[in-house]
Design a protein that fits this description.
By secondary structure, this protein is α/β, with parallel strands linked by helices. About 40% of the residues lie in helices and about 15% in strands. It has a seven-stranded mixed β-sheet, sandwiched between helices. The protein has a two-stranded parallel sheet with strand order 6-9. Helix 1 packs across helix 2 (about 45-55), helix 4 packs parallel to helix 5 (about 135-140) and helix 5 (about 135-140) crosses helix 7. The radius of gyration is 18 Å and the shape is globular. It holds the Pfam family Acyltransferase. This is Lysophospholipid acyltransferase family protein.
């Protein structure tokens, strides 16, 4: 109930009024049935803007840190993310990927929309990074379509480190559903899930117009942080 109050009465109308998002390709989102919406991830605002413009409820896999903050603020944040349909996923340890896949398949088994960011984390520089293969495993195993999505302009309104977003118009684009039924039964084959993931990322790239980096975002962030530590003046 709280989800629908936020979406249709409180947060949704406020976001649409403030950012006046341009919506393209909304007809590609199915009216019913399970599907994965896979998008780029440029800003903390992405968590709210896409769900606000969709007619259907969408559940996202979110990092567990959003749910484990200390004190009253942490509890309120966790309650808020639970209320808007986010599922906490522990991204540490060897079982992290499998846990995310199990949670995602659980959402899809109920015929719902699952939202996922294949890059695994927000882009720190506005570029599109290599996708992780969990999205492919879920798509093949569940036998559901993947709708690529591109958030355009959200990096500019709220780049990493900026708490309050700028009031500026953004664009949200959805592409045609991608069918991977030809890969049925191959979700344990590395070559197959890599091919599916790359096809999804290519579709997102075509929608977003970003520069593509064939490297995982987490690794690129770590490299940048290390360079900043060693050469602080150069990184400014």
């Amino acid at each position: 109930m709280f989800y629908y109050v936020l979406k249709h009465v409180v947060l949704g109308p406020l976001l649409r009024l403030t950012f006046r998002p341009r919506i393209e390709g909304l007809e590609h989102i199915p009216d019913e049935g399970a599907a994965i919406v896979a998008g780029n991830h440029l800003s903390f605002s992405d968590h709210f803007l896409m769900p606000a413009i969709l007619k259907r409820r969408i559940t996202f896999l979110a990092k567990a840190e959003y749910f484990t903050g200390p004190g009253i603020k942490g509890k309120l944040t966790a309650a808020f993310f639970h209320s808007i349909g986010q599922i906490p996923v522990d991204r540490s340890g060897k079982e992290a990927g499998q846990a995310a896949i199990r949670e995602g398949l659980g959402v899809l088994s109920k015929g719902e929309l699952l939202g996922i960011y294949p890059e695994g984390t927000r882009s720190h520089d506005g570029r599109l990074y290599k996708g992780k293969v969990g999205v492919a495993v879920m798509a093949i195993r569940a036998g559901v379509p993947v709708i690529p999505c591109a958030m355009v302009g959200t990096f500019e309104i709220q780049p990493p480190g900026q708490k309050v977003p700028k009031v500026k118009r953004v664009t949200i684009r959805f592409g045609e559903p991608l069918d991977f039924s030809r890969y049925a039964g191959l979700e344990d084959q590395k070559a197959a899930i890599r091919a599916v993931t790359d096809e999804i990322m290519y579709a997102i790239l075509n929608l977003s117009g970003q520069e593509y980096v064939d490297e995982y975002a987490v690794k690129a962030k770590a490299t940048q942080a290390e360079e900043s530590r060693k050469f602080p003046r150069r990184s400014r």
